[in-house]
Each structure stands twice: as structure tokens, then as C-alpha cells.
Design goal:
alpha+beta; Protein Transport Mog1p, Chain A; 7-stranded antiparallel beta sheet
Length: about 650
Amino acid sequence: MKIGSILALISLTACSYLTPKQLFFENSPLVVNCPSQWNYQFMGDTLIIDYDSLIIRINYESDSVQEIDFRVLLYYFNKSRNFLSSMIDNLEIRWGPSLIEMGNISGVKAVVNYFQSKDILVYNLHHSHEHLFTVVAFCSDHLTEDETVTEEIISEISFRGNVNTAETNRYYNNFGKYSINVPPDWEITENQSILRCRSPLVSKFNNAHCNLIITSNPVDSSFDLQYLFRENVNQLISSSGLIQAEVIEQGYDTIDGSESMWLHYRYGVADYTMLATSYILIMDGISYTLSYHSPADIFPKAKTDCEQIIASLKLGQNTTDLLPDSLTLEEKNRFINYPGNYSVIFPVDWELIYLNPDQSSICFISPPENVTDSIQENFLFNYSNQCSSYQSASDFFEDYVDSLGLNYPGFTVLEQDSVLIDSTNFIWFISTIDQPAFFEKFLSYVTIKDTFCYLVTFTASKKTFDGYVNLARKIMETWNFQDFSANTSISDLDEDFRYVNYQGNYSVIFPPNWIITNLGKIVVAKGVLESLDDDFQENITILTRDSLGIFSNLTDYFENNLNQLSEQTDNFTLYQQGDYEVDNYPAKFAVYSYDLFQKEIKFCSISIYRSPRIYTITFQDYPRDFQRHLPVFYEIMKTFKMI
């Protein structure tokens, strides 16, 4: 909005544009920003707005013209002139029609003169070679000012598009056995039986939104559609919360193959007239009511958007059946946590992140569903071997829930129960945090096994949680406990095979079948090829430096090494970094990858500082085998000793 130019106009319009109201055409996508002090009236596909002696008539013509050129615009100009001639005698074209441009709006403009030297401005316009519309302004004695005001209004005309109801925005409700595509920018609040969806602000003039509410409830088999419909109408008419509720029309329709009855009505709230439409249907013993409402002046937009959302409704489906094929679980994707003595299967396209090198905290993260996906579904696995204070899983559960309640106001446990997984009792619970800044919902599992306690938490947005909770349970069903100390590559770390480097003042145990090459300050240990198809030997390099050089501390030294790698290698990617400790000495670790001889190699590097020396131990492997071999590297690092 060009505020400066408006302030230069006549006083009646100077302030009116500061709070414009949006006017929506019912049967076309045309949206007009009307000054709030102006009067307006819809007459079919025509909008008439006026203030004092200026009257502007806006008419939507078409969105189906194949090609809009000067010839087409002249046709609509002659149509406008014929319309004016039918009302007014002795019209005279004083200027035009001539081509004009106003941002995304183009077309022709003419000035027509009639009795008493009054002028009519005629605009035949199109928006982005798609929408055709006509603006006719009946001017006062101030043609220049009226022309400026009219073109300001034209420049603010827009066209509402379709809401984003892509499959990637699908919301699932297991209680009601339905799913629906909700635009990502709509706000969602829910409980088991009620889903409330609210659009972003549509009109700043009256702080108006579009609202869609879906309720689902089990019903007795004796109830039929007509009975439920009558009950809804009676409740509507008798509701004390609605003022002057009035049924406008009703009828039948089909939603996802099921017969429904609909009701269109108006009611009053405060100083506003509201319009609403409700659909009622029954399927498989569940009744559904889908209602949308808004202030009357924006109802055409509410109708367009909400009907499009309702068209995406799917009924009677198990939400896990709707998950993409990439979320299937296969044994070949089993992740083994050697230090934690457990394994679990994850979807192949979920990313694994080690939150600390000893694997006591790891996270699996799903890929983003779309560019607006702000909360990626994820699993967080934690274990600890310092749980002697807990006598049972119940003790662990109660202590953990109490701590969450203290640290997060609004924390609420919605459901809880126990389940046997791999012959071990887990306590599971679903929770949320009832605060405006929290949009997540959680499924957690806790248990105690031998000397370990385990805490597993699945996180999703409140919007998508019901669609993924069955998958989360399915993943947990693949959980296995196992003592992995019998793993060949780890059990072979015998003290008899400890390698001692006297020059570097350290020692470390490698598996007996690894090949060790001493190059002075660099030591390289290579694993064996696992098969004839194995084309890369995972290896560990130990580099010893006599000092930190120009750097005053380990952090600066380590960060500089990472920066040099990012600048000097191709496709460098840093996955994570953090603090570590080796043989009670401070250390830093990082996981990263880059291309080496046109092949991607993944690394885990640990730098240890024992003044004045610094030791950098780096493990490298192909990405496909990296996670499988990484636990061996961590076990080797546990044997690293300073001498």
C-alpha cells in the first residue's frame, strides 16, 4: 500500500485505508480490499462500493480465456460501454481505451463523458494473463482524486488461491478412524473426539479466521443418518450460545463414498453475523460432524478452503496402512548398540545421530515430510548403567514422570500401561506439555534390565502423532536385548594384543587380525576385508603432535582442523561434534564426511590433549558400513592408555 500517495488524497480516504476490510466474491476468486468507512453491496458477481459521491462497480468476468490480448480487452470494453449506454444516454468517449500497467494487473483504460460533464472511468483488466475483471467508477467533480483512489483500490485487488492440502500434510485420528489433509499453516487443537482447525488471519479488519471443526463419536447401531441430522438441527436452534440461529438451506451430499446430510445456517455472535455449514454422516458405527464457520463477509473464502480440505477426508482407514513404503522395517536395517546391549530396527531412510561417543544417547530422525515440516518425527534412546537406586521399572517411571512435572509446567500424562518386549516388562506412556510454545506429543518407554535402565521417547507434532504412533509401537516391537560382548571383533580386544608406542607415550588394543603400520608419528591400523565383495578396509589412524602449535587450547585447535577440512575437501559435511574424555584426559570428537578419490568416506575423529602433546585418532569407512563398524572403534578407544 502506498500510504504516502493516499495521504495526499481527499480527507475522506486518507485514513480509511489504514484498516481495510477484505471482500470476497462468492463464486469467483476475486478479493477486494475496501476502505473500512466505505459502503459495499454484492449483487451476484458484481461488487459495488461507494463513499460520498464516488461509486465503484467491480465485476468478475472470466478465468477461462485462453489468451488475453488487446483484442480480448477491447471486446470487454465494448461490453462495458454497451452496459453504460443501456443506462445513460449520450455517452461520449473522451479518452482511450489505452493500455495500462499496474503491477501484476494489466489492461485498458478509458474516460467516458456524460451529462453535466460528469466522468466515468472504465477499466478492463486482467491479472497475470488469467483473471479478467472490469472496474467502472462513477466520479464526482474531482476526477483526478477519484482516479487516484480508484487505481489504489485496483492495485490492491488479489485472487485467492487453493489451500495447500498435499498428502504430506495429512493429519491422522486413530480414535475417529479418519485422516484429512490440513494446510501446514493452519493451527490445530485436538482431543480424542474433536479436531479444531483454524486458518491464518484472513481479515485484519475484524480479526477473522476460517474455522473447521470435526467431531467423531461412537453411536448406537439403531441410530440412522436422518435421526442424527434432526438432533443436530434441534440442538442448533435451541443452543443458548447462538443468537438468532436461522437455517438457510439443507440437502444431501457424498463424502468419501458415504452419504451425508448438510445444513447451511446463519447466527449472530456479538456484533457479527456468522455463516456456517455442517455435514453429518455415519460410517462403521462412528458419527462424524464436519462444520466450518466464519464471519459472513469472509465466508466465500471459508467455503472454498474448507470444502477443499473436506474433499481430502478418508474414513475407516488404519493410519499405519497409509504410511509410505519407505517406513517398512527390515532385519537388514537393524541397529546394534553394543555398549547398551540392545538392538532395534529402523526405517532405512531415518538418520542416526550419536549424541555422545559412548552411545548412551542416540537419536533416529525421520526425513522431513515437506519444506514446511518444522517437527521431524524422532526416537531418542537413552541408557545408563548407574541405576542401582531403582528397584523396579515402576520406581524408574515414577521418578522420571515426577522430574518432568517439576521441570515442565503443563506436563500431562494422557495414557499409560505396560507391555512385554523381548520378555521384559516396559512401562509406556503418552504425554504432552500444555503450553503455547510446545507443539509436540510423546510416546515413552522405560524399563530396567540387569544393571541398565533404559528410556526411549518417540516425539511427533500433535498434528501427526496419531498417524505415526502405531509405527513407533511397531519399531519398539523389534527391540532385542543381547549381551554383545561376545561379538568377535570386540571380544578379540585382548591385553595380549596391546600395541605400545613408546615414542608417542601411549598404548591401545587392536583386534589380532588387524594390520598395524608404524610411520613414526603416524600409526595406521587396518581391518580385514570381510568378503570378496568388500572393497574397503576400515582403518584407524593415530597422529601424534608435540604441541598445540599457535593455539592456546584444544577447542581452538580442533575447530581449526574442521575448518581446514571444510575448505580443502569436496562435499564436506559435519554431522556432529562435542566433548569427550579418553583415559581421564579432555578430548573433542566430530563425525563428518567428504569425497576422497570421488567416493564419499565417513570419519569419526577424536583429539586428546595431554600437555604438551595432542593425539588425533580417526576412524574411516564407507558410509554404508560406518554405523556397523563404529562400535568397534569406540571399544578400541576404551583401551587407549597414556604411558
